[in-house]
Amino acid sequence: MSARDRYEMVIGLEVHCELKTASKIFCSCPTAFGAEPNTQCCPVCTGMPGALPVLNRQAVAYAVKAGLATNCRIASHSRQDRKNYFYPDLPKGYQISQLDQPLCENGFLEIETEAGSKRIGITRIHIEEDAGKFVHIEGQGTLVDCNRCGVPLIEIVSEPDLRSAEEAKAYLRKLRAVLLYTGVSDCRMNEGSMRCDVNLSVRRRGVETLGTRTEMKNLNSFQFISRAIAFEFARQADALEAGEPVVQETRRFDQASGRTLPMRRKEDADDYRYFPDPDLPPIAVSREELDALRGEIPALPDERKRRYVGRWGLTPFAAELLTLRREAADYFEETAALTRFPALAANLIQSAAVPLLGQDGGSIPLPPAHMAQIADLLGEGGINSGTARRLVRELWDTGRDPLETVHAEGLGQLSDREALTVLAREALVELPRAAGDYRNGRTAALQSLVGRVMRKTAGRGNPALLQEIFRSLLG
Fold this sequence. Notes:
Strand order of the largest sheet: 2-6-7-10-1-11-12-13-14
Low-confidence stretches: none
Number of helices: 15
Mean pLDDT: 92
Protein backbone atom coordinates (compact mmCIF):
# COMPACT_ATOMS: atom_id res chain seq x y z
CA MET A 1 0.00 0.00 0.00
CA SER A 2 1.38 3.41 -0.99
CA ALA A 3 1.33 6.33 1.43
CA ARG A 4 -1.59 7.93 -0.43
CA ASP A 5 -3.63 4.73 -0.18
CA ARG A 6 -3.79 5.27 3.57
CA TYR A 7 -5.95 8.36 3.02
CA GLU A 8 -9.40 9.04 1.60
CA MET A 9 -10.88 12.20 0.16
CA VAL A 10 -14.09 13.80 1.39
CA ILE A 11 -15.81 16.02 -1.18
CA GLY A 12 -18.72 18.42 -1.02
CA LEU A 13 -19.81 20.43 -4.06
CA GLU A 14 -21.31 23.89 -4.40
CA VAL A 15 -22.92 24.22 -7.82
CA HIS A 16 -24.03 27.56 -9.23
CA CYS A 17 -26.61 27.47 -12.03
CA GLU A 18 -28.00 30.46 -13.86
CA LEU A 19 -31.78 30.31 -14.10
CA LYS A 20 -33.30 30.53 -17.57
CA THR A 21 -35.35 33.68 -17.03
CA ALA A 22 -35.69 36.34 -19.69
CA SER A 23 -34.79 39.13 -17.26
CA LYS A 24 -32.58 39.50 -14.21
CA ILE A 25 -33.58 38.68 -10.67
CA PHE A 26 -34.17 42.22 -9.36
CA CYS A 27 -34.61 44.33 -12.51
CA SER A 28 -35.88 44.10 -16.10
CA CYS A 29 -32.47 43.92 -17.82
CA PRO A 30 -32.17 41.01 -20.27
CA THR A 31 -30.02 37.95 -19.54
CA ALA A 32 -28.97 36.94 -23.08
CA PHE A 33 -25.48 35.45 -23.30
CA GLY A 34 -22.81 37.07 -25.47
CA ALA A 35 -24.08 40.67 -25.63
CA GLU A 36 -21.61 43.54 -25.97
CA PRO A 37 -20.02 44.33 -22.59
CA ASN A 38 -22.01 46.60 -20.28
CA THR A 39 -25.05 46.82 -22.57
CA GLN A 40 -27.37 44.76 -20.32
CA CYS A 41 -27.13 46.56 -17.00
CA CYS A 42 -28.89 49.36 -15.17
CA PRO A 43 -28.70 51.29 -11.87
CA VAL A 44 -30.43 48.42 -10.03
CA CYS A 45 -28.11 45.57 -11.03
CA THR A 46 -25.03 47.75 -10.64
CA GLY A 47 -26.14 49.03 -7.22
CA MET A 48 -26.41 52.74 -7.86
CA PRO A 49 -27.58 54.88 -4.91
CA GLY A 50 -31.37 55.04 -4.60
CA ALA A 51 -32.04 52.10 -6.95
CA LEU A 52 -34.36 49.52 -5.40
CA PRO A 53 -34.65 45.81 -6.29
CA VAL A 54 -37.92 44.06 -7.18
CA LEU A 55 -37.90 40.26 -7.03
CA ASN A 56 -38.46 38.33 -10.28
CA ARG A 57 -41.12 35.79 -9.32
CA GLN A 58 -40.18 33.49 -12.21
CA ALA A 59 -36.74 33.02 -10.62
CA VAL A 60 -38.45 31.83 -7.43
CA ALA A 61 -40.65 29.41 -9.41
CA TYR A 62 -37.61 27.93 -11.17
CA ALA A 63 -35.73 27.56 -7.88
CA VAL A 64 -38.72 25.79 -6.30
CA LYS A 65 -38.92 23.38 -9.26
CA ALA A 66 -35.21 22.62 -8.85
CA GLY A 67 -35.82 21.92 -5.18
CA LEU A 68 -38.79 19.64 -5.85
CA ALA A 69 -36.83 17.73 -8.50
CA THR A 70 -34.00 17.11 -6.02
CA ASN A 71 -36.30 15.90 -3.23
CA CYS A 72 -35.90 19.03 -1.10
CA ARG A 73 -38.27 20.45 1.49
CA ILE A 74 -39.57 23.81 0.23
CA ALA A 75 -39.85 26.60 2.80
CA SER A 76 -43.21 28.33 2.89
CA HIS A 77 -41.35 31.46 4.00
CA SER A 78 -37.69 32.32 3.33
CA ARG A 79 -35.58 35.44 3.50
CA GLN A 80 -32.99 37.24 1.38
CA ASP A 81 -29.80 38.56 2.90
CA ARG A 82 -26.94 40.82 1.96
CA LYS A 83 -23.56 39.11 1.71
CA ASN A 84 -20.94 41.82 1.95
CA TYR A 85 -17.62 41.57 0.14
CA PHE A 86 -15.61 43.94 -1.98
CA TYR A 87 -14.48 42.82 -5.41
CA PRO A 88 -14.21 44.80 -8.66
CA ASP A 89 -16.85 42.71 -10.48
CA LEU A 90 -19.42 43.36 -7.73
CA PRO A 91 -20.09 47.11 -8.11
CA LYS A 92 -22.45 47.54 -5.16
CA GLY A 93 -20.14 45.82 -2.69
CA TYR A 94 -22.62 43.14 -1.62
CA GLN A 95 -24.49 40.22 -3.13
CA ILE A 96 -28.14 39.49 -2.39
CA SER A 97 -28.25 35.84 -1.32
CA GLN A 98 -29.78 33.69 1.44
CA LEU A 99 -28.08 32.65 4.67
CA ASP A 100 -30.10 30.92 7.39
CA GLN A 101 -33.53 30.80 5.71
CA PRO A 102 -32.95 29.22 2.28
CA LEU A 103 -35.76 28.38 -0.10
CA CYS A 104 -34.99 24.62 -0.30
CA GLU A 105 -33.38 22.23 2.22
CA ASN A 106 -32.65 18.56 2.99
CA GLY A 107 -32.80 16.97 -0.45
CA PHE A 108 -30.85 14.23 -2.20
CA LEU A 109 -29.92 12.67 -5.52
CA GLU A 110 -29.30 9.01 -6.30
CA ILE A 111 -26.23 8.37 -8.45
CA GLU A 112 -24.96 5.29 -10.26
CA THR A 113 -21.30 4.44 -10.75
CA GLU A 114 -19.69 1.19 -11.80
CA ALA A 115 -19.37 0.46 -8.07
CA GLY A 116 -23.16 0.70 -7.61
CA SER A 117 -25.82 3.11 -6.34
CA LYS A 118 -25.28 5.84 -3.77
CA ARG A 119 -27.43 8.59 -2.26
CA ILE A 120 -25.84 12.06 -2.11
CA GLY A 121 -27.42 14.50 0.31
CA ILE A 122 -28.26 18.08 -0.69
CA THR A 123 -27.97 20.47 2.23
CA ARG A 124 -29.74 23.43 0.62
CA ILE A 125 -30.64 25.29 -2.53
CA HIS A 126 -30.84 29.05 -2.28
CA ILE A 127 -31.37 31.86 -4.75
CA GLU A 128 -28.94 34.70 -5.26
CA GLU A 129 -27.70 37.14 -7.88
CA ASP A 130 -24.61 36.64 -10.01
CA ALA A 131 -21.64 38.99 -10.01
CA GLY A 132 -20.03 40.53 -13.08
CA LYS A 133 -17.16 39.18 -15.13
CA PHE A 134 -13.51 40.10 -15.57
CA VAL A 135 -12.14 40.50 -19.10
CA HIS A 136 -8.37 40.11 -19.12
CA ILE A 137 -6.55 41.78 -22.03
CA GLU A 138 -2.98 40.67 -22.53
CA GLY A 139 -0.56 43.50 -21.89
CA GLN A 140 -3.32 46.08 -21.24
CA GLY A 141 -4.98 45.09 -17.99
CA THR A 142 -8.34 43.86 -16.77
CA LEU A 143 -11.79 45.29 -17.53
CA VAL A 144 -15.14 44.59 -15.87
CA ASP A 145 -18.27 43.55 -17.78
CA CYS A 146 -21.42 44.11 -15.67
CA ASN A 147 -23.84 42.30 -18.00
CA ARG A 148 -23.89 39.29 -15.70
CA CYS A 149 -24.56 41.35 -12.55
CA GLY A 150 -28.00 40.41 -11.25
CA VAL A 151 -28.49 37.31 -13.39
CA PRO A 152 -30.53 34.92 -11.19
CA LEU A 153 -28.66 31.95 -9.74
CA ILE A 154 -29.39 28.98 -7.59
CA GLU A 155 -26.59 27.61 -5.44
CA ILE A 156 -26.93 23.88 -4.76
CA VAL A 157 -24.85 22.74 -1.78
CA SER A 158 -24.24 19.02 -1.34
CA GLU A 159 -23.39 17.15 1.82
CA PRO A 160 -19.75 15.92 2.05
CA ASP A 161 -20.85 12.49 0.82
CA LEU A 162 -18.58 12.10 -2.21
CA ARG A 163 -15.41 10.00 -2.01
CA SER A 164 -13.92 10.11 -5.51
CA ALA A 165 -13.73 12.10 -8.72
CA GLU A 166 -15.91 9.45 -10.34
CA GLU A 167 -18.67 10.02 -7.76
CA ALA A 168 -18.32 13.80 -8.13
CA LYS A 169 -18.76 13.57 -11.91
CA ALA A 170 -21.70 11.19 -11.55
CA TYR A 171 -23.40 13.61 -9.13
CA LEU A 172 -22.79 16.62 -11.38
CA ARG A 173 -24.05 14.81 -14.46
CA LYS A 174 -27.18 13.68 -12.60
CA LEU A 175 -27.79 17.18 -11.23
CA ARG A 176 -27.32 18.69 -14.69
CA ALA A 177 -29.77 16.18 -16.16
CA VAL A 178 -32.41 16.95 -13.53
CA LEU A 179 -32.12 20.70 -14.10
CA LEU A 180 -32.35 20.27 -17.87
CA TYR A 181 -35.40 18.00 -17.56
CA THR A 182 -37.18 20.62 -15.46
CA GLY A 183 -36.20 23.43 -17.85
CA VAL A 184 -34.95 25.80 -15.14
CA SER A 185 -31.44 26.27 -16.63
CA ASP A 186 -29.59 25.53 -19.87
CA CYS A 187 -26.59 24.34 -17.78
CA ARG A 188 -24.06 25.31 -20.46
CA MET A 189 -20.78 24.88 -18.65
CA ASN A 190 -18.81 26.44 -21.52
CA GLU A 191 -20.84 29.65 -21.09
CA GLY A 192 -20.58 29.67 -17.30
CA SER A 193 -24.27 29.02 -16.67
CA MET A 194 -23.27 25.97 -14.61
CA ARG A 195 -20.07 26.07 -12.59
CA CYS A 196 -18.79 24.23 -9.57
CA ASP A 197 -16.79 24.91 -6.42
CA VAL A 198 -15.12 21.79 -5.02
CA ASN A 199 -14.62 21.54 -1.26
CA LEU A 200 -12.11 18.78 -0.53
CA SER A 201 -10.46 17.47 2.60
CA VAL A 202 -8.34 14.41 3.30
CA ARG A 203 -8.32 12.06 6.28
CA ARG A 204 -6.84 8.69 7.18
CA ARG A 205 -9.06 5.77 6.23
CA GLY A 206 -11.21 4.64 9.13
CA VAL A 207 -11.18 8.06 10.80
CA GLU A 208 -14.55 9.83 11.12
CA THR A 209 -13.29 13.35 11.83
CA LEU A 210 -13.15 15.59 8.79
CA GLY A 211 -9.84 17.13 7.76
CA THR A 212 -9.17 20.76 6.92
CA ARG A 213 -10.85 21.57 3.62
CA THR A 214 -9.83 23.70 0.71
CA GLU A 215 -12.19 25.16 -1.87
CA MET A 216 -11.41 25.12 -5.59
CA LYS A 217 -13.41 27.83 -7.33
CA ASN A 218 -15.38 28.11 -10.58
CA LEU A 219 -14.60 24.85 -12.35
CA ASN A 220 -16.65 24.60 -15.53
CA SER A 221 -15.88 21.23 -17.11
CA PHE A 222 -16.00 17.63 -15.94
CA GLN A 223 -12.42 17.13 -17.13
CA PHE A 224 -11.09 20.05 -15.09
CA ILE A 225 -13.05 18.92 -12.04
CA SER A 226 -11.49 15.43 -12.23
CA ARG A 227 -7.99 16.79 -12.70
CA ALA A 228 -8.37 19.34 -9.89
CA ILE A 229 -9.64 16.68 -7.47
CA ALA A 230 -6.79 14.30 -8.34
CA PHE A 231 -4.12 16.94 -7.80
CA GLU A 232 -5.60 18.38 -4.62
CA PHE A 233 -6.03 14.96 -3.03
CA ALA A 234 -2.41 14.07 -3.76
CA ARG A 235 -1.21 17.46 -2.47
CA GLN A 236 -3.08 17.19 0.82
CA ALA A 237 -2.25 13.51 1.36
CA ASP A 238 1.45 14.17 0.77
CA ALA A 239 1.36 17.12 3.19
CA LEU A 240 -0.29 15.06 5.93
CA GLU A 241 2.13 12.19 5.39
CA ALA A 242 5.02 14.64 5.80
CA GLY A 243 3.52 16.06 9.01
CA GLU A 244 2.65 19.41 7.41
CA PRO A 245 -0.64 21.25 8.11
CA VAL A 246 -3.31 21.78 5.46
CA VAL A 247 -4.44 25.41 5.39
CA GLN A 248 -8.11 26.30 4.93
CA GLU A 249 -8.03 28.43 1.81
CA THR A 250 -9.56 29.14 -1.57
CA ARG A 251 -7.57 27.78 -4.51
CA ARG A 252 -7.82 27.96 -8.28
CA PHE A 253 -7.13 25.26 -10.83
CA ASP A 254 -4.51 26.05 -13.48
CA GLN A 255 -5.54 24.24 -16.65
CA ALA A 256 -2.09 24.36 -18.26
CA SER A 257 -0.15 22.80 -15.40
CA GLY A 258 -2.93 20.69 -13.87
CA ARG A 259 -2.12 22.15 -10.44
CA THR A 260 -4.24 23.98 -7.86
CA LEU A 261 -2.78 27.26 -6.62
CA PRO A 262 -3.67 29.36 -3.55
CA MET A 263 -5.79 32.48 -4.02
CA ARG A 264 -6.77 33.63 -0.53
CA ARG A 265 -7.58 32.34 2.93
CA LYS A 266 -11.06 30.81 3.01
CA GLU A 267 -13.72 33.10 4.44
CA ASP A 268 -16.34 31.98 6.97
CA ALA A 269 -19.90 33.30 7.18
CA ASP A 270 -18.93 35.86 9.83
CA ASP A 271 -16.49 37.48 7.39
CA TYR A 272 -19.33 38.37 5.02
CA ARG A 273 -21.32 40.28 7.67
CA TYR A 274 -24.69 38.92 6.49
CA PHE A 275 -27.84 40.80 7.43
CA PRO A 276 -31.45 40.69 6.10
CA ASP A 277 -31.89 42.80 2.99
CA PRO A 278 -33.97 45.81 4.09
CA ASP A 279 -35.39 46.42 0.60
CA LEU A 280 -36.89 42.97 0.01
CA PRO A 281 -39.84 41.34 1.83
CA PRO A 282 -39.75 37.63 2.77
CA ILE A 283 -40.47 35.11 0.01
CA ALA A 284 -43.78 33.27 0.50
CA VAL A 285 -44.64 30.08 -1.40
CA SER A 286 -48.26 28.97 -1.02
CA ARG A 287 -49.43 25.35 -1.03
CA GLU A 288 -51.37 26.03 -4.23
CA GLU A 289 -48.29 27.43 -5.96
CA LEU A 290 -46.20 24.49 -4.80
CA ASP A 291 -48.73 21.96 -6.14
CA ALA A 292 -48.94 23.79 -9.48
CA LEU A 293 -45.14 23.79 -9.90
CA ARG A 294 -44.92 20.12 -8.93
CA GLY A 295 -47.43 19.34 -11.67
CA GLU A 296 -45.18 20.99 -14.28
CA ILE A 297 -42.23 18.67 -13.60
CA PRO A 298 -41.92 15.86 -16.20
CA ALA A 299 -40.82 12.28 -15.56
CA LEU A 300 -37.29 12.67 -14.21
CA PRO A 301 -34.23 10.45 -14.80
CA ASP A 302 -34.82 8.19 -11.78
CA GLU A 303 -38.39 7.41 -12.78
CA ARG A 304 -37.30 6.58 -16.31
CA LYS A 305 -34.36 4.53 -15.02
CA ARG A 306 -36.65 2.31 -12.95
CA ARG A 307 -38.86 1.76 -15.99
CA TYR A 308 -35.95 0.88 -18.27
CA VAL A 309 -34.60 -1.64 -15.77
CA GLY A 310 -37.98 -3.25 -15.14
CA ARG A 311 -39.41 -3.22 -18.66
CA TRP A 312 -36.41 -3.58 -20.95
CA GLY A 313 -33.84 -5.30 -18.74
CA LEU A 314 -31.20 -2.59 -18.74
CA THR A 315 -28.69 -2.55 -15.92
CA PRO A 316 -29.10 0.36 -13.47
CA PHE A 317 -25.77 1.81 -14.65
CA ALA A 318 -26.73 1.62 -18.35
CA ALA A 319 -30.17 3.09 -17.63
CA GLU A 320 -28.60 5.93 -15.62
CA LEU A 321 -26.25 6.87 -18.47
CA LEU A 322 -29.09 6.83 -20.98
CA THR A 323 -31.46 8.99 -18.94
CA LEU A 324 -28.85 11.71 -18.35
CA ARG A 325 -29.70 13.08 -21.80
CA ARG A 326 -33.43 13.66 -22.21
CA GLU A 327 -33.23 13.61 -26.00
CA ALA A 328 -31.42 10.24 -25.84
CA ALA A 329 -33.99 8.82 -23.42
CA ASP A 330 -36.89 9.98 -25.62
CA TYR A 331 -35.20 8.45 -28.65
CA PHE A 332 -34.53 5.17 -26.84
CA GLU A 333 -38.19 4.78 -25.90
CA GLU A 334 -39.21 5.15 -29.54
CA THR A 335 -36.50 2.69 -30.66
CA ALA A 336 -37.23 0.13 -27.92
CA ALA A 337 -40.80 -0.19 -29.16
CA LEU A 338 -39.48 -1.27 -32.59
CA THR A 339 -36.64 -3.71 -31.81
CA ARG A 340 -36.35 -7.19 -30.34
CA PHE A 341 -33.09 -6.20 -28.67
CA PRO A 342 -33.75 -3.04 -26.57
CA ALA A 343 -30.65 -3.49 -24.40
CA LEU A 344 -28.43 -3.55 -27.51
CA ALA A 345 -30.27 -0.48 -28.83
CA ALA A 346 -29.62 1.33 -25.54
CA ASN A 347 -25.91 0.54 -25.77
CA LEU A 348 -25.74 1.74 -29.38
CA ILE A 349 -27.51 4.98 -28.57
CA GLN A 350 -25.21 5.68 -25.65
CA SER A 351 -21.94 4.63 -27.30
CA ALA A 352 -22.49 5.72 -30.91
CA ALA A 353 -25.30 8.29 -31.10
CA VAL A 354 -24.86 10.41 -27.96
CA PRO A 355 -21.20 11.31 -28.75
CA LEU A 356 -22.35 12.70 -32.12
CA LEU A 357 -24.80 15.05 -30.40
CA GLY A 358 -22.12 17.08 -28.63
CA GLN A 359 -22.37 18.70 -25.23
CA ASP A 360 -25.44 20.85 -25.96
CA GLY A 361 -27.53 18.02 -27.38
CA GLY A 362 -30.16 18.27 -30.09
CA SER A 363 -32.29 15.74 -31.92
CA ILE A 364 -30.90 12.48 -33.32
CA PRO A 365 -31.46 12.56 -37.12
CA LEU A 366 -31.23 8.78 -37.58
CA PRO A 367 -34.86 7.52 -37.56
CA PRO A 368 -35.68 5.29 -34.57
CA ALA A 369 -36.80 2.58 -37.03
CA HIS A 370 -33.31 2.55 -38.54
CA MET A 371 -31.65 2.35 -35.11
CA ALA A 372 -33.98 -0.54 -34.27
CA GLN A 373 -32.98 -2.27 -37.53
CA ILE A 374 -29.28 -1.92 -36.67
CA ALA A 375 -29.93 -3.33 -33.18
CA ASP A 376 -31.80 -6.29 -34.70
CA LEU A 377 -28.95 -7.00 -37.15
CA LEU A 378 -26.52 -6.94 -34.24
CA GLY A 379 -28.67 -9.10 -32.01
CA GLU A 380 -29.19 -11.69 -34.76
CA GLY A 381 -25.46 -11.89 -35.48
CA GLY A 382 -25.79 -10.33 -38.94
CA ILE A 383 -23.21 -7.66 -38.04
CA ASN A 384 -20.77 -7.18 -35.18
CA SER A 385 -20.66 -4.30 -32.70
CA GLY A 386 -17.98 -2.39 -34.61
CA THR A 387 -20.03 -2.48 -37.79
CA ALA A 388 -23.14 -1.42 -35.84
CA ARG A 389 -21.38 1.69 -34.56
CA ARG A 390 -20.03 2.36 -38.05
CA LEU A 391 -23.55 2.19 -39.49
CA VAL A 392 -24.81 4.71 -36.92
CA ARG A 393 -22.07 7.13 -37.95
CA GLU A 394 -22.46 6.58 -41.71
CA LEU A 395 -26.27 6.71 -41.75
CA TRP A 396 -26.54 9.55 -39.21
CA ASP A 397 -28.29 11.95 -41.56
CA THR A 398 -28.42 10.17 -44.94
CA GLY A 399 -31.78 8.41 -44.65
CA ARG A 400 -30.30 5.23 -46.18
CA ASP A 401 -31.75 1.87 -45.12
CA PRO A 402 -29.37 -0.07 -42.81
CA LEU A 403 -30.19 -3.53 -44.21
CA GLU A 404 -29.69 -2.38 -47.80
CA THR A 405 -26.42 -0.70 -46.82
CA VAL A 406 -25.11 -3.88 -45.17
CA HIS A 407 -25.91 -5.93 -48.31
CA ALA A 408 -24.63 -3.30 -50.76
CA GLU A 409 -21.32 -2.74 -48.98
CA GLY A 410 -20.71 -6.30 -47.85
CA LEU A 411 -20.71 -5.42 -44.15
CA GLY A 412 -22.27 -8.63 -42.88
CA GLN A 413 -20.48 -10.40 -40.04
CA LEU A 414 -18.12 -13.20 -41.05
CA SER A 415 -18.88 -16.21 -38.87
CA ASP A 416 -17.50 -19.02 -41.05
CA ARG A 417 -15.44 -21.02 -38.54
CA GLU A 418 -13.25 -22.66 -41.22
CA ALA A 419 -12.39 -19.36 -42.92
CA LEU A 420 -11.69 -17.63 -39.60
CA THR A 421 -9.50 -20.53 -38.45
CA VAL A 422 -7.30 -20.10 -41.54
CA LEU A 423 -6.90 -16.39 -40.77
CA ALA A 424 -6.24 -17.13 -37.09
CA ARG A 425 -3.41 -19.49 -38.00
CA GLU A 426 -1.91 -16.74 -40.18
CA ALA A 427 -2.10 -14.31 -37.26
CA LEU A 428 -0.25 -16.74 -34.98
CA VAL A 429 2.60 -16.89 -37.48
CA GLU A 430 2.64 -13.12 -37.91
CA LEU A 431 2.47 -12.35 -34.15
CA PRO A 432 4.56 -15.04 -32.43
CA ARG A 433 5.28 -12.78 -29.45
CA ALA A 434 1.58 -12.27 -28.71
CA ALA A 435 1.03 -16.03 -29.02
CA GLY A 436 3.90 -16.69 -26.60
CA ASP A 437 2.61 -14.07 -24.14
CA TYR A 438 -0.82 -15.71 -24.10
CA ARG A 439 0.67 -19.15 -23.50
CA ASN A 440 2.66 -17.64 -20.60
CA GLY A 441 -0.51 -16.43 -18.90
CA ARG A 442 -0.85 -12.92 -20.30
CA THR A 443 -4.47 -13.24 -21.41
CA ALA A 444 -4.65 -9.64 -22.66
CA ALA A 445 -2.41 -10.69 -25.58
CA LEU A 446 -5.46 -12.42 -27.08
CA GLN A 447 -6.83 -9.02 -28.08
CA SER A 448 -3.82 -8.36 -30.31
CA LEU A 449 -4.41 -11.63 -32.14
CA VAL A 450 -8.15 -10.99 -32.54
CA GLY A 451 -7.40 -7.44 -33.69
CA ARG A 452 -5.05 -8.76 -36.43
CA VAL A 453 -7.81 -10.96 -37.87
CA MET A 454 -10.37 -8.16 -37.58
CA ARG A 455 -8.12 -6.02 -39.76
CA LYS A 456 -7.80 -8.87 -42.25
CA THR A 457 -11.60 -9.05 -42.46
CA ALA A 458 -12.10 -5.26 -42.65
CA GLY A 459 -13.80 -5.38 -39.25
CA ARG A 460 -16.33 -8.05 -40.27
CA GLY A 461 -15.03 -10.97 -38.23
CA ASN A 462 -17.06 -12.40 -35.38
CA PRO A 463 -14.91 -11.41 -32.37
CA ALA A 464 -16.52 -13.88 -29.95
CA LEU A 465 -15.95 -16.77 -32.38
CA LEU A 466 -12.39 -15.60 -32.99
CA GLN A 467 -11.60 -15.66 -29.28
CA GLU A 468 -12.96 -19.21 -29.10
CA ILE A 469 -10.82 -20.27 -32.09
CA PHE A 470 -7.64 -18.75 -30.68
CA ARG A 471 -8.13 -20.37 -27.30
CA SER A 472 -8.51 -23.71 -29.04
CA LEU A 473 -5.41 -23.20 -31.21
CA LEU A 474 -3.28 -22.00 -28.30
CA GLY A 475 -4.28 -24.89 -26.09
